[in-house]
Amino acid sequence: MAIRNVRTDGNPVLREICKEVAVVNDGIRKILADMLETMYDSDGVGLAAPQIGIPKRMAVIDDREGHVYKLVNPVIVESEGEQLSQEGCLSVPGFRGKCKRPMKVYVEALNEFGEKISFTAEGFLAVICCHEFDHLDGILYKDKAVEMERVEEE
Description:
Blueprint: H1 26-41, E1 46-48, E2 58-62, E3 68-80, E4 83-87, E5 95-101, E6 104-110, E7 116-122, H2 124-135, H3 141-144, E8 147-150
Antiparallel strand pairs: 1-2, 2-3, 3-6, 4-5, 5-8, 6-7
């Protein structure tokens, strides 16, 4: 595993619509492992492949409640409700913003072994999924924010 450089706002890869992963193989598993290590090193809860310069539909998430997700070609197939979430992003350092997100989302994806999986994400996990999956379509949370503020880096 390796820690990768996180791309920041202004890097064109963050605005690309990512391509689907055709085959989940050892190379994809290595990228997912690197993404997870990079996310933890940056104290994040989610990371999408374009954030490390790879325009592929992959994301990793840790809900901080004991569930870690390595997702390939994830999609939200249904959503319910609405919540106003306070968000930050490793690719938009020094800022936080409030975004309207669904309260609950139903996700389908492939896991790191190429197996189809599905799960329901509610509350904070729903926010993380929406935030990371937006990256796969070239969208940053600041594009959807109803309010932004500068914060001091820790």
